[in-house]
């Protein structure tokens, strides 16, 4: 179950891009010491990122984004990487972060639980949805046909179409204690959609498989690559994250099934920010994504090629999937 208990965002488990106090700057009060009825916007902002890849790599690559926001907004913006997906939501609810780059379920939760505004959603190569992928190092077991190569990576069971669902008949073979690398329950692609697909295929996910918990999508790929797990879940195509270090990952890790399509991740802003500042942040991010430099930086952070106005209603499908697993 995903707990709604407020989590501490700061601490040893959180990797920061810079040393910051996550409570941020308090609003300005009146000269007589009382608090103004309408609080002023903060004089600094914290941007929460979730660890969809190695935290150290995210620390190194996200600074150009916060530097851009600092310049565009005229106030310091500091990025932090939460210890898990849910911690980023709770940080926004606690006022410890004002901007969140969040997966689809967490966008919905930030809006539903804490009144955050979902302002932008991502595009990846023109797509506004993506599938979760099932990966294996044992294609002879899971592939009903000969794997085919696309862009230097192997797929089977029709997964080379790059659109879900595909190959889901094959996931019934994930049983008898097969070790499966999976992210925490807050991850749509690393947990929610694959686990739901397994359950709908008649797999008892508590007893038929042996879960290997991992903290990020690249770790799931590496668990399969290194033989620590026979099957792994991740977003499509997380193999690209580790390709520079493991050039043969596309050959050793074969994608044999794709889940139903999942709405893309995006950007949420806390309700405590004024409409004017929310508009300014939204415009700065969207404009940045439309520049060659910005698209390159966002691709490095989260494989984002563009940020576009959000459709909050599209997130309901993820909330319903999570509800089926008792995660809401």
TrEMBL record:
Domain of life: Bacteria
Coiled coil region boundaries: none
Gene Ontology biological process: transmembrane transport
Signal peptide: 1-18
PROSITE patterns according to UniProt: PROKAR_LIPOPROTEIN (PS51257)
SUPFAM superfamilies: Periplasmic binding protein-like II
Gene Ontology, cellular component aspect: ATP-binding cassette (ABC) transporter complex
Pfam families per the UniProt record, alphabetical: Phosphonate-bd
Keyword Signal listed: yes
Name of the protein described by the UniProt record: Phosphonate transport system substrate-binding protein
């Amino acid at each position: 179950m995903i707990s709604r208990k407020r989590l501490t965002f700061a601490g040893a488990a959180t990797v920061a891009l810079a040393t910051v106090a996550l409570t941020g700057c308090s609003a300005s009060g009146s000269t007589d010491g009382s608090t103004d009825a309408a609080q002023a916007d903060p004089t600094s902002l914290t941007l929460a990122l979730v660890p969809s890849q190695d935290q150290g790599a995210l620390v190194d690559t996200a600074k150009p984004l916060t530097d851009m926001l600092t310049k565009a907004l005229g106030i310091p913006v500091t990025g932090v990487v939460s210890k898990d997906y849910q911690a980023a939501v709770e940080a926004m609810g606690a006022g410890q972060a004002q901007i969140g780059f969040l997966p689809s379920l967490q966008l919905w939760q930030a809006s539903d639980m804490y009144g955050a505004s979902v302002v932008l959603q991502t595009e990846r190569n023109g797509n506004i949805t993506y599938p979760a992928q099932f990966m294996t190092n044992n294609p002879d077991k899971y592939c009903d046909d000969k794997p085919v190569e696309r862009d230097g990576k192997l797929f089977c069971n029709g997964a080379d179409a790059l659109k879900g669902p595909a190959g889901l008949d094959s996931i019934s073979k994930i049983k008898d204690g097969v070790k499966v690398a999976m992210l925490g329950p807050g991850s749509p692609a690393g947990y929610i959609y694959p686990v739901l697909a397994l359950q709908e295929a008649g797999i008892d996910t508590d007893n038929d498989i042996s879960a290997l918990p991992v903290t990020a999508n690249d770790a799931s790929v590496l668990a399969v690559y290194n033989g620590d797990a026979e099957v792994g879940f991740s977003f499509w195509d997380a193999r690209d994250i580790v390709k520079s270090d493991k050039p043969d990952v596309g050959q050793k890790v074969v994608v044999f099934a794709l889940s139903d399509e999942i709405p893309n991740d995006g950007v949420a802003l806390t309700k405590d920010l004024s409409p004017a500042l929310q508009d300014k942040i939204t415009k700065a991010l969207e404009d940045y994504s439309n520049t060659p430099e910005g698209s390159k930086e966002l691709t490095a952070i989260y494989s984002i090629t563009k940020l576009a106005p959000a459709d909050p209603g599209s997130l309901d499908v993820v909330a319903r999937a999570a509800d089926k697993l008792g995660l809401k």
